[in-house]
Amino acid sequence: MKRKCLEKAECATARSLDTIGDWWSLLIVREVFLGRRRFGEFQKSLGKARNILTARLKNLVARGVMEVVPASDGRAYKECVLTEKGRGLDIVLIALRQWGESCLYEDGSPCHASAVHEQHESARPGRELHTATFRVVPAAEG
Q1: Does pLDDT of 13 surpass 70?
Q2: Spelled out in words, what is the top-level CATH class assigned to the domain 12-87?
Q3: How far apart are CA 97 and CA 134, in angstroms?
Q4: What is the largest CA-CA distance in the chain?
């Protein structure tokens, strides 16, 4: 079944989902927040087929969420970085993670993202959160 395009929808939620609603797309964005920038790093971490990962990356670039730039170390390969629009998804990832922590884990089960949760909970009510106000802790560190 072909997915319906919602990019011209009246509803902002529908338009947002049209851009980043595919779970692999949002997981790629999460990977960039975790410090990954290269295709091979995404593929290794996500375990996704090359063709699917390529399609999702192309869509994120086409939608202005990510851009492909020369490697930061001067090598010939390219890296993927978030645009300003992509960096704005930080709060979406925090909210999804918190919802998952509170609703999808049994009490007492370990959660690899507890540092994000604790820092968010300690924020003053009404304070806007951005990547400068939290640190995502990969599972190996947490």
Answers
A1: yes
A2: mainly alpha
A3: 13
A4: 48
